[in-house]
User: Fold these one by one.
Assistant:
Number 1:
Amino acid sequence: MRPLILEMSAFGPFASVQTTDFSALGSNPLFLINGPTGAGKTTLLDAICFALYGKTTGDEREGSQMRCDLAADSVLTEVTFSFALGEQQYRIRRVPEQQRAKKSGDGYTVQKPEAQLYHIDTDGTEHLLVASKVSEATAEIELLTGLDADQFRQVMVLPQGKFRELLMADSKDREKIFSQLFQTQIYRRIEDKLKFQASAIKAEVRDQRNKRDGILHNIVLDSDDALTSELTELTPTLAQASEAKETAKLALINANKLFESAKLLVKDFDAQDKLQQSAVLLAEQKDSMAQRQSKLDNGQKALQLKPVLEGSLAREVERTQAQAAVSQVQSTKLASEQALTVSQSKFDTLTELELKCQQAQNDEQKLTQLVPQLQGLESLQTALSLATNERDQAKNSGIKGKATLDALLADKQAAEQQVPQLELVASQQVDAQQALTAQSELIERYQQWQVAAHHAGNTEQALQLAEDKGKQCRLDAKAKGEAYDQLQLIWHRGQASLLAQKLNPGQPCPVCGSAEHPNPAQSEQRLPTEDDLESSRLTSETAKDALSQAIADYKGLKAQLQEQVKLRDEYQQKLGEWVSHSLESLQAHLQQVQQQVHHANTAAQALIQLRQKIQSGQLKERELQTQLDAERERFQALQTRVATVQGQQEQALAAIPEQYRSLQALTGAINQVKQQLATLQQTINHIRQSHTQALEQDAAKAAALTAAQSSLLQAQEQADKAQAELDSQLSTSGFSDKQALSHALLSSDGLQTLTDEIAKYQQDCIANQATLTLISDKLAGQVKPQLAESELSLASIQTEQQLAEQSWQRVQSRVTQLTQTQQQLKEADANAKKLEDEYAIIGTLSEVANGQTGNKVSLQRFVLSVLLDDVLLEASHRLQLMSKGRYRLIRKEERAKGNKASGLELEVEDAYTSKVRPVATLSGGESFMAALSMALGLSDVVQAYAGGIKLDTLFIDEGFGSLDQDSLDLAIRTLMDLQSAGRMIGVISHVSEMKEQIGTRIDINKSVLGSEISIVLP
């Protein structure tokens, strides 16, 4: 990776936007990052690491803690970094979480973290890869660079005070870094694949063994021999039970045939009884049917006279309706005559109303002519009011402006007196912030230790409860298993007494076949049923399942406790001596540091605001003086304008009557006259229309009365004619009057119903007599059988057959179960043998590949050890140069103690003593030279391997101060050699010799308003 452009805004000590163009340093530069303590040299590397991964190089500060307190509220904290990977270019922008000023209104709001990643084409076109999610951007960067944040810090940056980490990393940590750099994950996948296959086969072998034990457990047997023995014993028993079952089945078939014949005969006798009862009922209905026949005859005769009756009734209704119509029209005629009289009296008043209407029109014209004059007067009044208000406002504005100017001068003088004290407090801001970060991290580790200790204590209590529960479940499972075995024994022994209870004298025994039963078996205790036996078995199985679950819970809690204790001890080790302190004391100290930070931050912010206030006050002073001069001139002009408008107003008032000098009063008077005129016109029109309508309605009512009287005469004639015809028909039909005829009338449905009932009765009589004759002939000489006796005999035979069937089913089921079990055991043995043979191969390969044998070196670690040897060869070449031939880095080949991973640890060979010793024994300066050599050698070897990550940039933060003059010269010469080989090397150092020998620099200048960056070229 090669940096191109870095842009920071309100980040660290940089209050404003700072841009660093690395391409301006030249191709493959060796440059120095120079500046005083606290200026922001390391922040430059933090910004690169934060842009890529959202973390700083030292991982000691969060992105949200990197905001510059000197920055203005409107400036957003963000970092934009452009870089190249080979021929491809990318740009990433990252914004941390922070408090920012609201876009509208006062106060602050939380700016959520965001990130955007772009790919840049050769023509400069950008393609968005990640829109906003920080996690997606970090994942994409890790995919592009092949490194996570920790690995980036170890191979491309030697952070201040942490360069020994690259040397002291154990095999496990170094394996993670090297596997990413050399892309050896395929060997790890081979290890995992073999381990997964071996584990799966081992689990299958265990499952097969458990399955075999479960098969025997399901049939309540302990061994294969017991299964074979029971099968041998059950073979003759099954043959006997099968023979008894067939005999009982044949007896049941014969008994069923006899019982069905008896049931059919009883059914015929019952049918004969029902037919005889029906014949009696039909005879009782004979008189009722005769009455119905008479009613039917009268209804048919009345049906012929129905049209004449309906015609007479219709004419009578028409006459009644005509009489009602005449009465109604007479009433409406009288009302129309009265309405005409009232309308005529109103029509006579029209002349007087028309005179009033003419007077209202004249009044409206006079008032309307006053409107323009009044509007002119009101315009003058408005102009006078506005001019007076403006004059008064100009006067007040001048007074207020003078007071504001005096107050502004006083504030400016007071602010200038506060500046020195605020500068002193604000200078402590950086030190206080660093102390706050350290104390916050200490409290976080302390709380993590407390939580881990609390969880371990809770799990320990849960483990004790699980152990007690397991003991209780074991006792419960044992007791319920023994109860089931005892109940099963009683059930088997009691089968003989159950059979004996069903024996009858003279009937053969289903077991021995004898018809005599001199000594049947008896039971002195209550025998369990099959349901009791099944319930006991399920209870026993449930108890066993509970025991298995309790054991699994105990094992899980035990493993969980081990992990929690390990985590608690790790946290405690990290805390060190701080474990003896209380959380309250740590938090109290944190509050003190927070107050210091708050005071320093408040002072820095107040200092910025104060300086801005002083500068703003000077500008405001000049503006206020200019405004005061303008207000004086404006007041004089407005005073003249007020006098002019007052004269014009007095002339206009003389031309308008006093009661109409208000536009509202004049408008009200005009509207009142208009409303009066409209009311008069509406009344005149209404009277004329009403009188015309009254005349028309009276004429229409007279014509309607004449027509109604004519219709009444016609209706009376028709009604009399229809009544005469009805009387003539009644006299010849046998009905006494109209009421008798109406009573005899039946509906068509009623006539049909009577006809159908009479016909059905006659058919029922004929059918009953014929069926009764047939069944009586069939039953002649027969005796009705007793079904109860036959049913009891059949039930007894059915019981015997069911007992024989159940006895055979039990034996047959057990034989089938045992036979299937034998086959299952054979299959399980064959599968287990096959899996064990397969595990002998895969398991051995997995152990070798995962470093579980020999020197405990896994396959990937073995490959990486070869690559590490190449790295150490290159690193030792540089280390020998810088150490004047004394030191050489070598790989430790001895196996680590215990189960710790080994194969990638480092040692140093001392040419002065001819001994090999741990790298931890090197001094500070020697460790820096070794770490620098290691980083450079790693860079060379990684790029030499195809598919490796390209490491063409290295940043070194401090460390040169621990070298003597000769070692420093050799280190600088080594870095210059790397520059000529095509590397970009950035160095942070306070050593003066570095500044003398490295002409290309990035200078960082510190000030109270924030640091600034400049590039210095030789």
Number 2:
Amino acid sequence: MRPLSLTMVAFGPFAGKQVIDFETLGKNPLFLINGPTGAGKTTILDAICFALYGKTTGDEREGSQMRCDLAADNLLTEVSFKFELGEQHFHIRRVPEQQRAKKNGDGFTTQKSEAQLYKLEADGTEVPLVAAKVSDATAKIEEFTGLDVDQFRQVMVLPQGKFRELLMADSKEREKIFSQLFQTHIYRKIEERLKQQAAGIRKDVEAMRNRRDGIFQGADVASEQALVDEHTQLQPQLVAAEELKAESEQQVLACNQKLDKALQQQADLNKLNQLKAVSAELLSQQPHIEQQQQTLQLAKRAQLLHPLHQSVNARQAEFAQSKSALIAKQQQEQQTAKALADSETNVSQLPVIEGQILAAQQQLKQRQDLIPQLTEIDGLVAKLAQKEQAMQHSEQQGKGLKQQAEALSEQKRAAQNQLDGLKAQAAPLLSLQQQLNDTKQHLSIYQQWQSLNNEIANNLTKLQQAKRNGAELNQQHQALKITSDTLQFKWHSGQAAILAAKLNPGDACPVCGSLEHPNLASSHETPPTDEAREQAQNAEAEAFAKLNQARNDYRLLQQNVSNLEQRANELQLQLADVAKISFEELSANLAQISQQFNDAEKAQQQQAEQESQLVNMQQQEQTLTQQLEQVREQYAGLKEQMASDKGQLQQLKANLPDDITSAEELNQEAVRLKQSIEAEQSKLQNLRTEHANAQQNHAAVKEALKAAQQTQVTAEQLFEQAQAEFNTQLHQSQFVDLPAYEAALLDSASQTQLELVIKDFEQRKISNQANIEQLDAQLADIELLDVDKLSQDKAEISAKATLVLDQWQKLSARVQQLAQTQHQLTELNTQAKQLESQYAVVGTLSDIANGQTGNKISLQRFVLSVLLDDVLLAASQRLQLMSKGRYRLLRKEDRAKGNKASGLELEVEDAYTAKVRAVATLSGGESFMAALSMALGLSDVVQAYAGGIRLDTLFIDEGFGSLDQDSLELAIRTLMDLQSAGRMVGVISHVTEMKEQIGSRIDLKKTAMGSEINIVLP
């Protein structure tokens, strides 16, 4: 993660808006955050941490406590941070919870905390990722950076007074940090998965044991051997029981067959006795059947006289009916005579009713004459109500039109002010067009110039590298030259010693010719061979050739840099003062001018629209004025008409009777009179109709009475004739009198029933006799069996068979249970072996992976210990440099006491004492150097492993004041090396030497109105 810019508003000691553009400090800057105590140096780190995670670096203050007391009430406290993650750029904005001034009215309201996160595209557009929810923004940051707030504080920020925390963290805390940085969660998942699998196998084993115990308990055996023994013992018993069972079943079958035969014989005898009893019963019924046959014959004779007897009964009924009808007509004649007399009495009252109707009609006419006058009064009342409502409507309409006119006038004034503003905004359109063209041209030249500068920087880097390569090649050449010269010298010395050894006193020296040899050459070493000398000379010559080639390459690079600088200077002259600003600022200026030009162009368009709106408003104002005048005239006319109508109404009411006040009352009175007249007229008509009906009814009944008298005489004659004919036929028949005939008479159903009974009796008699003869033939000459004895024998044999069957069932069920149990145990034993085999692998792996064996180190902690060794190796290189070779960081390999996590604790090796001791024994300055080395080593290793987490930036808050001069210089040199390796390093310090050696600074000025920020470049 690399910061790009930080904007703070009313945050900490900063009362207004302060912006830090980190890109102006360079690509990989080493910069100092400098300022007096309380100016806000640490607040810059707090702002970065708060923007990312909503918490400060020290976590001692909440975001809601970071508002500046000097800030204006209408200024919202917020932090915006733009940063780079790999190739992607992001922008996050956070607003803490705070009290802010209300937008409308006085007082304050609570501003809730919020956060927005955007992804910055290459063209500068912002793509929203989180709209407002604080927790969502924090979760996204943790996802992108791979760090939570605590891990961010420990690996990217060394907060004031807390740099020892990273150094002093225990194994558990360091495991949490490192697992996130190196993405080793997969090993933790492996531990958990193995642990779960092992626990699952143990659970299965326990369940299997419980199941095995349950099987033994269910089978009522103590062990598997006891089960086998019992099964072996029961097998012969089961065979014997099966034989007894088969024998007893045969005995029961034979006994059942004999008993069935005896029972059948007994059933046949019983049936024969029953048939003989039925035969006797039928014989006793014979007289009754003969009597029924005689009754049937008499009924058939009586049936011949039945039609004549029915005719007599019909004529008798008609005669009785005619007598009843005559009596009814006589009674009806009496009733109609009485009704006629009553009707004549009512008709005498008709003149009185006619007089009442005439009086009511006269009163109705008087009331109806008043209707037009009352209708006119009601019309005037309705008109007055309508006009009063119309006056109220006109009054309200006038008020509404007046308000519309006032509002339109206010809108007109606002539109005129807006038009004036648009004219002022559109005025610089032409000049902005020229500025826009100039800025685009400058930006194009600037890009070319910047490209050349980048190329120059790359070539300068190559030049420095070539210089370093040349120095290294020169050193190599000098070393090889010394080696070659040394070998040459040793060879010559060896040759001199050889010559000296051959010289005798008085012999001339072959080199100088001297006869005296006061100091003969000697050598205790074997002179080098010619081959060794030749190899050394060749190596020196090859190194010298490489050195010359490097010098030529260096000169070519110098010439290339010179040419590029000349072209860059030409472009810089074209840019003039524009070259003093950054490309981002120039781009921002272009964007700003483009925006201003667009705003001016838009204002020009809006100006024409606004002028058109003003013309429309003036027309609307005239229309409203005309409408308001019309409403006022209408109101005055209505008021005058109401006064005239009220006078006319009073005059009409004066001519009315006192008991009539309205047309409605008069109408009700008229309706009542009409209803009364109609009722009397209806009564009159009903009386007349009733009298006429009474006369007609009486005359009709008298005629009907005469007809009824004649009908009775005729019916009596017909009855007497039918009676005489029936008596004649009855005397000629065999019946003595009418009762004898009636006694013999039967209906058709009864006759049919008698015929069926007689026929059924005859059939039963024949069938019963045939069955008796058949059974007599079957039972002749057979020996009868004793049913009681056979039943007793069956009971005894069945009882014995039941005992045998019960014994066999018990033995069979037990043997089957034991066999099934044996099968279940065999399956369980197979499964148990499989589980034991699985647990031998999985359980062992789980114990090892979860740190249950050996040094009690889990799989993830073992992996992290290897990674920690790499971190400590990189950290120790820097710590040895800063401590002048004294200290080296080591991982503590001894197991911790008890169950405490171990494997990731740190120790320090002291070269001065040759002892290893705890890191807690380091002094304040030594602890700072160790923590700084640890942070830098961690940054190197994390990025080297490319685990998705980039630690491109490090902020250090204080700690340098605890170092002596030499250690401080070494620490600064380490930070510079870190900068050269592509890191951004920000340092907060009061130490004067830091300010002298670090050229890039963020200076903070503390004032009574709040702190201010200024970026100082070398």
